[in-house]
């Protein structure tokens, strides 16, 4: 079985405690997502985020 996890979170995994405020829960979630997996960071801007920013600027004008 294979699974792909994508995220638009700009933060590294170590900062996920902002989302999962319980440290034990955070550790468990990160452990299950990363066990036996590979992390690929593209360092590219999200297409959806760029589109949302453009639409917000257009709406403000």
Provide an overview of this structure.
It is a single chain. With 61 residues, the chain is mainly alpha-helical. It has a domain at 11-39. It has two helices and no strands. The chain has helices at residues 23-34, 47-60. The chain starts with 22 loop residues before the first helix and ends with a helix. The mean pLDDT is 78.
Overview features:
61 residues, mainly alpha, 0% strand, elongated, IstB-like ATP-binding domain-containing protein, IstB_ATP-bd
**What is the average of the pLDDT values?**
78
What is the share of helical residues?
40-55%
SS-based class:
mainly alpha
Low-confidence stretches: none
Cα-to-Cα separation, first versus last residue: 48 Å
Oligomer: single chain
H-E string: HH
Give a short account of the largest sheet: none
How is the secondary structure organized here?
Elements: H1 23-34, H2 47-60
Write a concise synopsis of the structure shown:
43% of the residues lie in helices and 0% in strands.
């Amino acid at each position: 079985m294979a699974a792909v996890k994508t995220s638009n979170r700009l933060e590294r995994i170590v900062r996920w405690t902002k989302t999962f405020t319980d440290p034990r829960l955070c550790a468990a979630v990160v452990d299950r997502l990363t066990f036996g997996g590979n992390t690929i960071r593209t360092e590219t801007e999200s297409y959806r985020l760029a589109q949302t920013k453009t639409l917000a600027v257009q709406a403000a004008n």
